[in-house]
Structure formats: structure tokens, C-alpha cells
Amino acid sequence: MKNLSEADKLKIPYKMLSEDAFSQWLGIEIVKVKLGYCQVKLKVRKEMLNSMQKSHGGITYALADTAFGFAANTHGNYAVSIETSINHIEAVNEGDELTAESSVSIDKNKLGFHVVEIKRNTELVALFKGVVYKASKKWEVE
């Protein structure tokens, strides 16, 4: 299998999103992609609220996890999460637009360590950390 060009690697998150019904249901949009980096966004809707009328923590987690997965896969190999954690810092409300910005902090041969900042405008509302395992299988993009 041929090695992907940098331009092809940057197409991977778009391919992933096109095949990800859950992220599409959430309304996640890709804002920016670079090697080892991805920024995504969503707007919090009524059906995403918990019993306290705040965004369910799973929404923030899912947004961060999507950014993390997209960024990790820009290296061209399938990358799957093996450990994640999130710290919820501020409550999130209906109508808030959130962005999640994932960047690789440490990139090893088989492992990648990422930090994702989830923000409402410039305010940090959650911090996510994740580790991926990079498989030998390579992405194919058109």
C-alpha cells in the first residue's frame, strides 16, 4: 500500500466524518486540520441537555473525542484510543457553540498522546487527554 501525501492525510478527518453517523447527528463540523491537529465545533441543542438543563457531559466528551480521533488519524495510519479522560471545568448551556482543539503532545512510533481543549468562545470549559495506538493499517482516501 502506498504512503499517503500530506494533502491526502489532511483529507482523512473529512472521510471519517462522512462515515460517522453519531458525529453527524451531533452536528459536528470540521474547522481546521493540520498534521497531528484538528479543530471541530458544534452548537448545543435542547436534546443535548440533562435534567439540570445543562449540556450533558457526554456531549462535551463526544466533541473532544471526535477532535482527538480526527487529529490522531492525520498521520495516515488507523489510530484507535486506548485511554481517555476529561475534566469538566464549566457548565455548558443550550445554544452555546463549543470548539474542541486537539493537538498531539508526544508522538511515538506506536503511541500518540493528545490534549484537547474544549472552549466556549475563549473560555476553557473542559480539558480532555487521550492516548492512541497507531495500527499498521493505512488509510485510503480518494
Automatic annotation (TrEMBL):
Keyword vocabulary terms for this entry: Hydrolase
Keyword Cell inner membrane tagged: no
Thioesterase domain mapped to chain residues: 56-120
GO molecular function: acyl-CoA hydrolase activity
Highest taxon, organism lineage: Bacteria
Protein name in UniProt: Thioesterase domain-containing protein
Organism: Psychroflexus salis
Lineage: Bacteria, Pseudomonadati, Bacteroidota, Flavobacteriia, Flavobacteriales
